[in-house]
């Protein structure tokens, strides 16, 4: 492993209208590592993910993905585009392009961002549709898909970027319970491909099973982090203990 | 109906229809320019371009706040007085100018509303995969905004076709002007203007049909 592999975040801070949401987040992610972030609502978990993709603009801090290092305070348009192309994002509400079919949703990043020839992009998109188990829905528009199917396309679209880091922002929170299983199953398969993943979720059983490392966040800070066995079975910090106790 | 000379109406139809191309020419050219101008105005408003934004607000306010007929008279009779290079302007050009400015003011607002009305998640998803601003507008936002704006824009186009009839007040012999001339000779005003009304009605009905087809097509992606 070279010194530029993996991802590191240093001193990432973000405020909305004077309220601090992220308060100096430091984070290191090894290649292929799967990290799950847990914590109470409104503690900045989603904001952290969104800042890593510059959907929200952090005020300070450094984000390094491989050999790309971005200083949040002075990030140029080019920096932001480069960062977005090396991180992919799975949204809570799927956010599929409503005017594009499932196949086109996946092709979009390939054709427009990666400048792949149309035919090649189509082959790749069909292969991804196979992986996410939706080959028969290639020409379906998002509005005609179930929530679970839409989120699988959302994951497929993110997979197409072949990003060094995949960000999952509560990917099952908007789903009817009947669709949660198929989305988690797909995420397990993505993980099996040694994809580096940063996941915000409330699915604790899933977190315990998939995570190499679990991070507990509260009040815009990382309170505690460690392997799932430590966080779930022997939490050190009283706030972690309190959070897990309330979950039952 | 006693007194209604249907034979005269039938005979007059082809005479009036000879001027239909001019009516359609003014409407289509006016619509083309109005769409371009309205898109520019909408973009200035959305990105809140300093100074230009305020100017656009005044522009829209004026052209929505005053009658089209008054605007046409201002361009055709008024402006050449103060700007001598405009003396060469003919009635058709003045009409197209007036229609363009007048309707672009309305259309700018509906285009702006349509763009802003595209769900935030669509902007974010486009950003998240690393699209540039122009790729995002071209491939994701504008196609969806077009669907939202299409019904209103077609309505403005229908309105614009009917408004071309005002060109006759600038001495342009379009359908209305032709009917006026014919009726002045035959004194059959009712028949002549009824003919004009029927022609407009048929054109608008055809457009309404096309509008429904267009909307069905645009909504295809959104059907459950």
UniProtKB/TrEMBL annotation, chain A:
Record domain ABC transporter: where: 7-244
Transmembrane as a keyword?
A: no
Q: Which PANTHER family match?
A: AMINO ACID IMPORT ATP-BINDING PROTEIN, HISTIDINE TRANSPORT ATP-BINDING PROTEIN HISP
Q: What is this protein called?
A: Amino acid ABC transporter ATP-binding protein, PAAT family
Q: Which UniProt keywords apply?
A: ATP-binding, Nucleotide-binding, Transport
Where along the sequence do coiled-coil regions lie? none
Organism (species): Roseibium suaedae
Which GO molecular function, any one, fits this protein according to its record? ATP hydrolysis activity
Q: In which family does this protein belong, per the annotation? A: Belongs to the ABC transporter superfamily.
**Keyword field contains Nucleotide-binding:** yes
UniProtKB/TrEMBL annotation, chain B:
Keywords attached to this Swiss-Prot or TrEMBL record, sorted alphabetically, are:
Amino-acid transport, Cell membrane, Membrane, Transmembrane, Transmembrane helix, Transport
Q: Which GO terms describe its cellular component?
A: ATP-binding cassette (ABC) transporter complex
What topology does the record note for this protein and the membrane? Multi-pass membrane protein
Record flagged with keyword Phosphoprotein: no
Q: What is its main location?
A: membrane
Gene Ontology molecular function, alphabetical: L-cystine transmembrane transporter activity
The residues that cross the membrane are 20-44, 56-77, 83-103, 140-158, 192-210
State the compartments where it is located: Cell inner membrane; Cell membrane
Domain ABC transmembrane type-1, by residue range, is: 20-211
The entry sums up its family as follows: Belongs to the binding-protein-dependent transport system permease family. HisMQ subfamily.
Which NCBIfam families does the entry link to? HEQRo_perm_3TM
Protein name according to UniProt: Amino acid ABC transporter membrane protein, PAAT family
Question: What is the originating organism of this protein?
Answer: Roseibium suaedae
């Amino acid at each position: 492993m070279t010194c530029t592999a993996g991802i590191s975040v240093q001193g990432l801070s973000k405020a909305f209208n004077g309220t601090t949401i992220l308060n100096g987040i430091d984070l290191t992610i090894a290649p292929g590592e799967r990290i799950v972030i847990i914590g109470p609502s409104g503690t900045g978990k989603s904001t952290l993910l969104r800042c890593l993709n510059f959907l929200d603009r952090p005020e300070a801090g450094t984000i390094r993905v491989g050999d790309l290092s971005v200083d949040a305070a002075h990030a140029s348009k080019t920096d932001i585009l480069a960062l977005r192309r090396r991180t992919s994002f799975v949204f809570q509400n799927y956010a599929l392009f409503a005017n594009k079919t499932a196949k086109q949703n996946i092709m979009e990043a390939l054709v427009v961002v990666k400048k792949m020839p149309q035919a090649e992009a189509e082959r790749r998109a069909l292969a991804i549709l196979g992986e996410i188990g939706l080959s028969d829905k290639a020409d379906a528009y998002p509005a005609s898909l179930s929530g679970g199917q839409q989120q699988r396309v959302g994951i497929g679209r993110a997979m197409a970027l072949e990003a060094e880091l995949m960000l999952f922002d509560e990917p099952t929170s908007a789903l009817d319970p009947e669709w949660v299983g198929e989305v988690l199953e797909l995420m397990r398969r993505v993980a099996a491909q040694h994809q580096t993943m940063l996941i915000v979720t409330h699915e604790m059983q899933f977190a315990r099973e998939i995570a190499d490392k679990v991070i507990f966040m509260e009040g815009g800070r990382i309170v505690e982090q460690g392997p799932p066995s430590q966080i779930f079975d022997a939490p050190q910090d009283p706030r972690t203990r309190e959070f897990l106790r309330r979950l039952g | 109906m006693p007194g209604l000379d249907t034979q005269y109406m039938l005979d007059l139809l082809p005479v009036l229809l000879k001027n239909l191309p001019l009516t359609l020419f003014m409407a289509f050219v006016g619509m083309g320019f109005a769409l371009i101008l309205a898109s520019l105005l909408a973009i200035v408003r959305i990105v809140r371009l300093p100074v230009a934004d305020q100017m656009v607000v005044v522009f829209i306010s004026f052209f929505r706040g005053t009658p089209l007929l008054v605007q046409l008279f201002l361009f055709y009779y008024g402006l050449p007085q103060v700007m001598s290079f405009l003396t060469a302007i003919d009635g058709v050009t003045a009409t197209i100018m007036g229609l363009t400015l007048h309707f672009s003011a309305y259309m700018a607002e509906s285009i702006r509303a349509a763009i802003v009305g595209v769900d935030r998640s669509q902007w974010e998803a486009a950003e998240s995969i690393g699209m540039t601003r122009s790729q995002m507008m071209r491939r994701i936002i504008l196609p969806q905004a077009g669907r939202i704006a299409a019904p209103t824009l077609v309505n403005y186009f229908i309105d614009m076709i009917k408004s071309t009839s005002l060109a006759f007040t600038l001495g342009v012999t379009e359908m209305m002007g032709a009917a006026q001339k014919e009726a002045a000779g035959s004194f059959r005003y009712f028949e002549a203007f009824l003919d004009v009304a029927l022609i407009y009605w048929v054109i608008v009905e055809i457009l309404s049909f096309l509008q429904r087809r267009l909307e069905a097509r645009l909504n295809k992606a959104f059907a459950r």
